[in-house]
Amino acid sequence: MNFNASRNVGHAGGPRKAKRVSDVAAMGAPSSSPGFSPAPAFSPGYPPAGPPPPYQQGIQLDPGQDFGAQDTAAVPGYGFGGGFSQSPMASPAQLGAMLQQPIVQDMALQYGNELASRGGAAVRRELGRVLPVSRLRYYFAVDTRYVLRKLMLILFPYRHKDWVVKYDQDTPVQPRYDINAPDLYIPSMGYVTYVLLAGFMLGLQHRFSPEQIGIQASSALAYIIFEMLLYLVTLYITNTSTALTTLDLLAHSGYKYITMICSLLAGLLLGRTGYYSCLLYCSLALSYFLVQTLRLQLLSGGSQTQEPPSYAAGAAPPGYAGGYGGSYAGSYGDGNPYASGWARPAGTKRRLYFLLFVAFAQPLLSWWLTYHLVPSAAAAAPATPAPAR
After folding, report:
1. DSSP labels for 76-112?
2. Per-domain residue ranges for the chain?
3. Is the pTM of this model over 0.85?
4. Range with the poorest average pLDDT among 5-19, 45-59, 122-136, 279-293
């Protein structure tokens, strides 16, 4: 039954009686609601998905995709293979113009400097493994004043008093600032001068040949190497430790070239008498110079020292016997520590013998390398022509 209250209000005749509708057919049949049916999980138009494909490394391309169908005509100059056009190569004129650009030149200069610095560092590193270049710089740090003073010291060493090598903390002072420091400049220049002077004297005796220069140079070099090996083997066999390095021994051994040159010049001017007189004086001066120079480094270079004397319990050290009320019961019976050589380096006698060996070997080698170069009296005198008949 439908009831509308608004219809019964507002009419002149009063309220209107509601009409009851009893005929259901007059209202029309109600529409039936559709039945509920759940939507399917998958659309019937697509097949169900299978298991995932196995993992494959790399990028998988779709075989159905056509990469060759691209329009390559719109991309000129970037071709490789089929379908792409190659760009023309630059001409030599263009390359030359590009190389003339300041930025290109700066880059090339920086690259060249970097290569040169790397190469120099590699050469110095490899050379430092064989030869201590940094140490050689110390032995060649000389000047003209040092060379003149050193030559006068080698020839006239008797008035020199201070033979101690100066040190700057733990580093020895360079030779230009210390006349007692060893150097390799004078030995190297003496070696070259000796070879040239030997060739000159052989030429005056009509015995010169190009091979003689090589013989004199090689023999002098061989003897200096043999001498160094002899010194090193002697130190090793006698188990003698010193503060001298190999370059120090080489420097002091090379000072004999000064004696050899002076003796040859005296023999050239005064004959054999002048030669032997000059050789004797220069040998004595060189031996004195070596003894005074090497004795401090040899005798104080040992690392092993004798142990100090042990004192008995309650005993006083030497010199303080009355202060402690007891008597000294150590190894010194007279109480004099200097009588037994306390704190004296071990192997002092071996070092002393080695020092004398070096000092007396230099004159012998100087004579051996120069006596055959001095002309004899018969050879020096000019040959008298035979009387004409």
Report:
1. TT---STT-PPPPPPPHHHHHHHHTSHHHHHHHHHHH
2. 97-130, 142-304+344-375
3. no
4. 5-19
